[in-house]
Write a structure and sequence with these properties.
The chain has about 220 residues and is mainly alpha-helical. It has eleven helices and two strands, in the order ββααααααααααα. The longest helix has 25 residues.
């Protein structure tokens, strides 16, 4: 993973396979952190846990740090949704997805509504329990729709299966400034228009047909 040059350590990462796009982002973040650390060959190094005043690691301080980082990242995603150039209904729908307030079958069960094993299955694939994350991100039909959206936009990537991670991953793709204002809208409209409407259909063809009827708006990406 590295070597010494003139008494200083130089990192040299090597991997057994090419990294996915989201892994490249994590690697860049790691390298930024490592750039702040200078290892010396003739000097003893030690670990210090910055989240604790005494520098000692503890589960309590680690948990607190993760909670703070997660909440900050979560709040920033909610801000992205509400600032998106999209209809208010779509923004409200995306917000409800992130906070898990969609009346899916699993959420109905949590509210005390009794459903049989068959009744709780996803309305699209009929294979898995219908939770928010499954219905909008993990279902094989939903996944196929999202792959078609990304192919239409010229991207290829492995998609995430929960709302916050999926949106974070979605935002990574955009580098052109002119697209940043409409890219969150594509995520929201994908949720609100394509997938929600296809919930009443039972096959992939219907889901794809729903998407096909919306693709003429691709002029938004080139204007």
């Amino acid at each position: 993973m590295g070597y010494w040059i003139n008494g200083e350590w130089v990192w040299n990462h090597s991997w057994r396979r090419p990294l996915f796009d989201w892994e490249m982002v994590v690697l860049i973040e790691l390298n930024c952190l490592l750039d702040n650390v200078a290892l010396k060959q003739d000097i003893a190094n030690r670990w210090t846990w910055k989240a604790s005043p005494d520098g000692a690691y503890s589960v309590k301080t680690a948990y607190k740090t993760i909670q703070i980082q997660h909440q900050e990242g979560y709040n920033s995603l909610l801000k992205v949704i509400w600032m998106a150039n999209a209809p208010l209904k779509s923004k409200a729908f995306g917000w409800r997805i992130l906070i898990n307030k969609i009346p899916t079958k699993m959420n109905m069960i949590r509210r005390g509504i009794e459903l049989s094993t068959d009744q709780r299955l996803c309305a699209l694939c009929k294979e898995q329990d219908e939770s928010t994350n499954h219905l909008f991100f993990a279902c094989k039909i939903t996944y196929a729709v999202w792959q078609k959206i990304y192919n239409w936009c010229g991207f290829s990537s492995v998609l995430q299966n929960d709302g916050a991670t999926h949106l974070s991953h979605h935002l990574i793709f955009i580098k052109e400034k002119k697209l940043k204002s409409i890219w969150p809208m594509i995520w929201l409209m994908g949720r609100r228009q394509h997938l929600h409407k296809s919930k009443d259909n039972d096959d992939n063809a219907q889901a794809n047909a729903t998407l096909d009827r919306t693709t003429p708006s691709s002029s938004l990406l080139t204007s």
